[in-house]
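Sample pair:
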Amino acid sequence: MQIVHSVFSWFVNFCGSIFVYGAIIAAILILIERILYSARRRDDADKTASQAASPASSRRIALITGASSGLGRNLALEMDKNEKGIDEFWLIARRKEKLEALAAELHHPSHILSLDLTLMESSAALAKELQEANVEVGVLVNCAGLGKIGNYRTLTVEENNQMIDLNDRAAVDVTMVSLPYMKQGDRIIEICSTAAFQPLQHFSVYAASKRFLYNYSRALRLELFPRRIPVLAVCPYWMKDTEFISTAQHVKSRSGSADPAADSPIRNFALAINSDKAAARIMRHSRRGYAVSTPGLLCTLHRFFGKLIPTETMLYIWEGFRKL
């Protein structure tokens, strides 16, 4: 018994040392990144001033997907008020009338692109628009996303494919299409989810798709570091003033139900946040060069404990939480 206790104590001490030294190394790397990106922001300010003095330079645009409603709409409104060095907004979504309504609220000129990003030809259409326009993509926001609540029996192949196509393939396509038109000081914002921090049963495809986008964003950030184009992975919690929850609850297998929400396997959306407050925090984090943004208390705690608690335990915590 004494031997087992000694081995256990050594293991705890060893793991504690790894955690401490790993945290110190991470802090040093983050500090170096922040210093280098601070230099980038000074260069960006100089570039904005030189562009103002040179009217022949290309227009610097903010390109936002999923801009017709919810978080995407609020990010456009937030940037319209507070983002410097933007000449024009490019708004992308399926619903043209909602994009026109948003464009009417913005003080900056807007270019509307009514595209269904689940279709392969949409990224080609965007590439053509960018090629023909004399623009620089100053801020790219991939906010188009779709979630469907259900398991392997209740979701159709089509619903799963739509989530994967929009949340993953479309986000990567739009990013790749935009990068040739980005320079040092420009920024990328990929809207992931707190669902990226762990597997979620009855939300499995959505959570997996957001994990893909999260990992892609973190890796792309280092790939673009030599170009000083920071990539921000945004991982928000539920938002109560958007269409996301109601859309997620309405799946084809429950389309005939009088109240699809009552039959949903996820019934707890407590502590959901407002998308306008999340948008303000996200843009602050982007301007400061953060790698990850958790714009709320619950998603911040989820990120922290998701690193400490084993996945198996997190799965059973979620199993209880979703039934509350």
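The beta strands are 59-65, 88-93, 110-114, 135-142, 187-191, 231-234, 292-293.
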